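Renewal narrative, Specific Aim 1. Our central claim is that a sequence can be written position by position from structural information alone. The example that follows is taken directly from our test logs and has not been curated for this report. It begins with the structure tokens describing the chain, in the order in which they were read.
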């Protein structure tokens, strides 16, 4: 009987996996992982239906995950103070206080909320979820938006300028015991609010503007129609005419004063 030697007697106990089975398990695991991610993204998207996506800040207020109405309440609580205050305008002839409420300075909540709600909503629910997760790491900030009534501000400044106007006084000749003399003229004052109006408009739109501020309007002189020099010349001419009349009175008929 021929004896065949057995080499590597433990070979029969070793298990050699098949390549196809290993690859199949890897693909199945990968697909399962993708499915889990997709399910998570879809669930994330559904959780934020009718809510602002994560990572959205409005005027320093985190409105992530809030409904529009809840976000508005949060903004009013924090930004409502911007509607309170007043500006004081000075000139050389007076001053005026213009409350913010008079010119209807207001926080534009609706415009800010429109922008906040629209962030990340350009694509599908899946894309919205991806954008929302990205914004958690890189938040989006919307600055406070303010508005005011320009016509009311113009009316308030026009009324202030009218109150500050001072009529000029003309020079004139007055009679005194010693003769005639000139009463001097006085310049008037016109208040120019064009420069201060631009400054107030910029301040009303700036959320960093304090609750109270003071600005000075320009005042320009208004010249009189009759100046001191005009009156002096008129007085001199009147004296010359008076002298001529006196001479004519005492000169013989037909002679003229030299």
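The sequence written for that structure reads:
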């Amino acid at each position: 009987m021929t004896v065949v030697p057995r080499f590597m007697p433990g070979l029969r106990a070793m298990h050699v996996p098949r390549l196809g089975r290993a690859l199949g398990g890897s693909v199945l695991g990968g697909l399962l992982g993708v499915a889990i991610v997709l399910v998570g993204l879809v669930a994330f998207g559904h959780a934020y239906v009718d809510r602002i996506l994560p990572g959205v800040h409005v005027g320093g207020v985190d409105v992530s995950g809030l409904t529009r109405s809840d976000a508005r309440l949060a903004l009013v609580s924090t930004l409502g103070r911007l509607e309170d205050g007043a500006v004081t305008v000075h000139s050389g002839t007076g001053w005026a206080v213009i409350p913010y409420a008079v010119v209807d300075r207001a926080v534009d909540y609706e415009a800010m909320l429109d922008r906040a709600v629209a962030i990340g909503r350009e694509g599908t629910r899946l894309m919205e979820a991806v954008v929302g997760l990205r914004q958690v790491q890189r938040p989006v900030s919307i600055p406070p938006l303010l508005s005011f009534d320009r016509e009311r501000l113009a009316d308030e400044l026009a009324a202030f300028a009218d109150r500050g106007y001072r009529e000029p006084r003309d020079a004139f000749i007055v009679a005194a015991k010693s003769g005639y003399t000139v009463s001097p003229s006085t310049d008037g004052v016109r208040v120019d609010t064009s420069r201060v109006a631009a400054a107030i408009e910029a301040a009303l739109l700036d959320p960093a503007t304090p609750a109270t501020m003071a600005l000075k309007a320009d005042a320009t002189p208004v010249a009189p129609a009759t100046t001191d020099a005009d009156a002096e010349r008129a007085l001199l001419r009147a004296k010359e005419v008076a002298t001529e009349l006196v001479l004519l009175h005492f000169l013989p008929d037909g002679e003229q004063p030299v």
